[in-house]
Amino acid sequence: MARPLIAVSAPREEVPTAFGTIDCTKLTAHYTDAVYAAGGQPVVFPVTAPPPPDLVARMDGLMLTGGGDLNPALYGEAPEESVYGVRDDRDAFEVALYQEALALGLPILAICRGLQLVNVLRGGSLLQEIEGEQNHWQENPSTEPSHDIAVAAGSALAEVFGRTARVNSYHHQSVKQLGNGLRVAATCGDVIEAVEATDADLVGVQWHPEHMAATDPRQLALFESFVKRAAANPRTMR
């Protein structure tokens, strides 16, 4: 059987090069490596305006990746001083990409910023800066965990991780108001660490499992579960 095709959103970023500072498509290989190791074929979707609907229709799943902050205007707020890396072109592109995938019924895995985007598009909001004793921006290597999460009983995530897991952490924002059609799938104290949709095949995680997938079988299993659902999509059987 052919590998299911997984659309992977790729941000743009200004990068110093021999040609000067240039707007580049920039995606860490951890994302594509994790999808491939899980049995999928990653297909990188760079920021364009808009994403080609005919190409999205050929995909079997969508992975929304991490990166800079969403424009707080998307959830009706002005930016606080801590907001960084806002790209309106990326916001608009991923909004359209998500809506296309949702309309097609594709399985969706949303990572870090991706979870936050999904929450906002479903009417939720974000804490622009997390407060509290737990540090959610770790200093140890990204391949290592920094804190525990409690996984909700009966969630799809519990089928992968059980009721607890150790995860890495690279976010200064988190879900404030939960979006419509979402349920909490994991927490760390008061911080929502994962969500699932009640009306779509969608899992969102706040940590970066792609950085741990090569060394932690349970993090790889998250991608394997996603790719397995994509392979079962009728589109894959074309």
From TrEMBL:
<dbReference type="GO" id="GO:0006598">
    <property type="term" value="P:polyamine catabolic process"/>
</dbReference>
<dbReference type="GO" id="GO:0033969">
    <property type="term" value="F:gamma-glutamyl-gamma-aminobutyrate hydrolase activity"/>
</dbReference>
<dbReference type="InterPro" id="IPR029062">
    <property type="entry name" value="Class_I_gatase-like"/>
</dbReference>
<dbReference type="GO" id="GO:0005829">
    <property type="term" value="C:cytosol"/>
</dbReference>
<dbReference type="InterPro" id="IPR044668">
    <property type="entry name" value="PuuD-like"/>
</dbReference>
<keyword id="KW-0378">Hydrolase</keyword>
<dbReference type="Pfam" id="PF07722">
    <property type="entry name" value="Peptidase_C26"/>
</dbReference>
<protein>
    <submittedName>
        <fullName>Gamma-glutamyl-gamma-aminobutyrate hydrolase family protein</fullName>
    </submittedName>
</protein>
<dbReference type="InterPro" id="IPR011697">
    <property type="entry name" value="Peptidase_C26"/>
</dbReference>
